[in-house]
Amino acid sequence: MQKKPAKTPRWARGLAISVLTGLGIGILTIIISAFFFYRHYAAEYPTDTQNLLSALTSAIVIGIGVGAFAAIATGCGYLLSGLLKPGGTSNQQVDNPEQTDKTSDK
What is the gyration radius of the CA atoms in the chain, in angstroms? Predict the structure, then answer.
């Protein structure tokens, strides 16, 4: 008899999706905002030698905040989508209908 592979728990799948989404959005936000912050600092303070450092610092702060928000929003969305399904959050499937709970017949 061959065993079925273990299923990933629903909370682990949701956690992985939300962390990867937050990380990806955070990195993209850092790259894009660093470009715009550098353009802003270069236009406002043309003689300052630390424009790049200021732009990167600002971009990292913004990227971490946006990435964290995206991760939380994705996690909440995944959680709510599971609660709205008719089956709820149960991952159990009945392979044999004869193995169902017999207490419901009483």
Answer: 24
CA distance 38 to 52: 6
Length of the chain: 106
- pLDDT tens digits, one per residue of 42-97: 999 999 999 999 999 999 999 999 999 999 999 999 988 887 776 554 555 545 55
Of residues 100 and 30, the one with the higher pLDDT is 30
Do residues 48 and 41 lie in contact, with contact meaning Cβ atoms separated by under 8 Å? Answer: yes
Q: What is the 3-state secondary structure (H, E, C) of 40-58?
A: HHHHHCCCCCCHHHHHHHH
Spatial distance between the Cα atoms of 70 and 75, rounded to a whole number of angstroms: 8
